[in-house]
Amino acid sequence: MQGQMPQEIEVWYIIPALRREIAKSMIEDYNMAQKQIAGLMGITEAAVSQYLNSKRAKEVTFSNAVLEEVKKAAKRIIEDKSSLVPEMMKLTGLTAVKHVMCDIHHRQNADLPEKCDVCLSEPIVKIKSR
């Protein structure tokens, strides 16, 4: 069976797990309500609830270093809702997050070479921010 491509892993596993951790930080560190979090993150209250109750994105765990970056991102998102996308881009670009994606990719694709670094390679196209 062919596993998912790195981009699919990012969409199905990494981004939801980062959302989960951001939501947890907003509740634990800032005492925000699920409704407020949903509004800031552009997701439903049900999605926030599922993240908090480990019904979504439970397959991925991050290192303490990544969780510290998530907490910083949560603070910046609270201060400026428009920073959600740039913060998510920064988080998905962290080397430690890329390693999580690489681990999942290897588990799903037994036929990948052991020295595969597709998930860790730089993107071919760089997009300039405004």
Concise structural overview:
By secondary structure, the chain is mainly α. It has helices spanning 6-30, 34-41, 45-52, 64-79, 84-93, 95-108.
Note the main attributes of this structure.
130 residues; 6 helices; elongated; mainly alpha
Describe this structure in words.
The protein has six helices and no strands. By secondary structure, it is mostly helical. It has one domain. Helix 1 packs across helix 6, helix 2 packs across helix 3 and helix 4 packs antiparallel against helix 5. The radius of gyration is 15 Å and the shape is elongated. The protein starts with 5 loop residues before the first helix and ends in a 22-residue tail after the last helix.
Distance separating the two termini: 41 Å
Structural class by helix and strand composition: mainly alpha
Query: What global shape is seen?
Result: elongated
Query: What is the helix/strand order?
Result: HHHHHH
Overall pLDDT score: 85
Number of domains: 1
CA radius of gyration? 15 Å
Total strand count, please?
A: 0
Tell me the major beta sheet: none
- In helices, the fraction of residues equals 55-70%
Low-pLDDT parts are: none
Which assembly state applies to the chains in this document? single chain
Tally of individual helices = 6
Report the sheet-strand fraction: under 5%
Protein topology:
Layout: H1 6-30, H2 34-41, H3 45-52, H4 64-79, H5 84-93, H6 95-108
